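Now for a sample.
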Amino acid sequence: MAAPNDPELTRRRQRQEDFLRGTSKINFDDHVDHRVLSGKTAIITGGASGLGLGIAKALSDNGCRVAVLDLSEPAEAGTDESNIESPKLFKCDVSSWESLLAAFQEVMLWSGDRLDIVVLSAGVRSHNIKDLILKRAVGSASTPVKPPSSVFDVNLLGTYYSAYLALWYFTNLESKSDGLESSSWRPQLLFIGSLASYMEQPLSADYCASKHGVRGLWKSVRSHSASFGGCQTNLLAPTFIDNRQGSTKSRGDGALISLTTDVKLGEVADVVAGALRCFCDNNIEG
């Protein structure tokens, strides 16, 4: 048992208090150097569209080799001749352990056993629990119909599988490190949550629950980075995001919102800027 004045005990208590409070308020006037991203390798789940694609393209533009794990080809992939292989699609169903494991293994072969950044962005839109019940109740038999589980399969189980693999590789790659990597760089694990990770989203029961779950996954590992290759772990929780062209815009969960509503929409670029700041600022953690 540690003595009351044990410096290690004091350090652990202080760290616990820091994580309860969270990172101190960010000064967005502080400069971050995106050049640290050059030569790094990143995996973006769900990187073929939306926020994932925005982050993938930004990383690629800053000299990072980007592997997109998705079922669809990334829009405009390979248009930059200076980085023709990135973003590169590794076709994958994140809700399947076997598919996800095979994709990670392919990426490691492609990157020469290098992995510096993993962004957990794969997600699908919600089902309205009221609509499911009322539509299936009309004229149906007395036996309830099983509700769809795709939102949990992708948003929560897929995120858990992806986080597990990221932490596994970060931990094992550290043990193989030759010590030549810059001491200021730490492997980056970024969870993409949602406003629904913190606030209610009426009747979007599966989406809201899954995004609360993503926040729970992040909180369960964020104070144990030393055990996982010393990685730096953060979560972004975007509000409704304008990532669609035309008369309708898309929420973070993929549902459509009329532009005539009073909902204030965020921009993909704002989320991308937040992600890059997480990657490039050592002071932002947890």
